Amino acid sequence: MNTTWSRFNIASVVLGFAFLYLPIVLLVIYSFNESRLVTVWAGFSTKWYGEMLRNEGLMNAAWVTARVGVLSASIATVLGTLAALALDRYTRFRGRLLFSGMVYAPLVMPEVITGLSLLLLFVAVGMDRGFLTVTLAHVTFSMCFVAVVVQSRLVSFDRSLEEAAMDLGATPVTTFFEVTLPNILPAVVSGWMLAFTLSLDDLVIASFTSGPGATTLPMKIYSQVRLGVTPEINAVCTVLIGLVSTGVIAASIVGKRKEVQRRREEQAAFAEGV
Amino acid sequence: MQKLLSAIASRLVIIVPYAWLLIFFLIPFLIVFKISLSTSAISMPPYTPAFEGIGTWLESARKFTVDNYVWITEDALYAKAYLSSVIIAAVSTVLTLLLGFPLAYGMARAPQSIRPTLLMLVILPFWTSFLIRVYAWIGILKPEGLLNQFLLWTGVISEPLQILNTHTAIFIGIVYSYLPFMVLPIYSTLEKMDYSLIEAAQDLGCPPITAFWKITLPLAIPGILAGCLLVFIPAVGEFVIPDLLGGSRTLMIGKTLWSEFFNNRDWPLASAVAIILLLLLVVPIVLFQNAQARAQEAGK
User: Among A179, A185, A251, B165, whose Cα sits 20 to 30 Å from the Cα of A161?
Assistant: First the structure.
């Protein structure tokens, strides 16, 4: 394709990315600031990281968040993948319209509404608010994101592979685990990661559905931020940003390598066949 | 036996997620609606149940009250909060589009080899915490913050600007946080576009600007619509951004709901606020669902 990347195009891309990244870069830089005053630079120091590690409340919250994140992302991935399969494979069943509505609506639903409604459910059935309720709430909204990610992969998946497997005598369940799942695995994995980061990130829904003893990291950060910006919080944020970006970049590199390898194998198989 | 198992498995594919969403998404809304019709009480939970169980339904239905809704319509504060939420969300959506479209367009026109990297760079901030990204702006926008320091140092201004705790700060926060949601759908429509159409138009003597208005923009409409809805709907009910960047005087309905619930502990009133917010958003949400469903169908 013959495209021209004009100066205007380059300028808008550079400006856009500067806008997206500058605040994060500044935040990271100032987490290494010696001074307690966040906006005055007083030399390089890692003391706020030490301070952060000694802050017991913060560390407890981080541990709660990690557990909620792993558990809710795992359940959400299973449910979201099932929902994607249901939407992709079964074009006609009773209540499909309601079902697709319930899958897409949470993507844009204001968090205050989701949080309030889930809280009222838990109160109505007499469940104590805590670790379990936050996890259930996170599963509910993140499974919809997983469903959308997996569904977009299923759309481009070649179903003749499944038909071939079934023609050769595989049961639908075996076919799913041997043929379909390996094929959509990259989407399932990125769905899991998306669900995990959504859970890691969520303040509003967690505030509604969490109870004593299950304070998550965003709730902790939020309550400290309300008292003012501190280098300690900058340090926590930097660690989180580092973890997440490493994970995402690593996953995309691995994914790309797998894709290249798969293509090469396909070509080799094709060449042999000819 | 095998067949039976398979039949059960294929049913479960639908039933399990369906049941989950019914229990944790639909039923909670019905409960919100129910509680919005009850009166508040100082107890735990802080409301007088409007009904208990199916058996006492009819009897207790008489206890339903629309007081909360009447209260919301009579107190101008709520109307103002709804209105200002919609206005702030709409303005932010337009600003996001103005910044997001050139970015998406530039990415779509970039050399094929660097496009995946650019795409990754747009998605990456989306993975990092929303709260952290909003928080990062506080340090920048404060009166003694980095932006003011920079502007004072360059001599553009002589007095620090008051940006934090104004609407401007909310606009910046929403545009910044939701930019990837705008860029991604627009990029995906522009990337699929056939640029030979533009070349054909130019060969026929159409100036580039006209070609943009007559060809590129109309083809990008589905992406623009999806992006705008993805930004507008959550922005109307946004809590974190107005709370942290907008200061205490900002009136947005997400904040109102939060304070009715957490500060005033008036659960029925908070529920009624939520129901009206939901009604306000029904049309854009249905539009969004249709756009999503069509996009998924078109992929086939």
Answer: A251
Give contacts of A145 with chain B, Cβ < 8 Å: none
- A190, amino acid identity: S
CA distance B285 to chain A (A): 7
pLDDT tens digits for range B59-70: 555 567 788 888
Instruction: Please give the Cα distance from B125 to B114 (Å, whole number).
Output: 18
* Sequence-separated (6 or more) residues with CB below 8 Å from residue A201: A218, B129, B130, B131
* B111-169 residue pLDDT tens: 888 888 888 888 887 777 778 888 888 888 888 788 888 888 888 888 888 888 888 99
Q: With respect to CATH, is domain B77-265 assigned 3.40.50.1440?
A: no
Q: For residue A37, what are its two tokens?
A: 């005053």
Q: Which of B6, B88, B127, B202 to mutate to test the interface with A (most CBs of A within 10 A)?
A: B127
Contact A99 B9 (CB under 8 A): no
Best residue of B175, B292, B294, B297 to probe chain A, by most A CBs closer than 10 Å: B292
Q: How is chain B split into domains, by residue range? A: 77-265
DSSP string, A145-205: HHHHHHHHHHHTS-THHHHHHHHTT--HHHHIIIIIHHHHHHHHHHHHHHHHHHHHH--HH
- Kindly give the residue spans of alpha helices, DSSP state H, lying in B193-266: 196-203, 208-211, 217-236, 240-245, 253-262
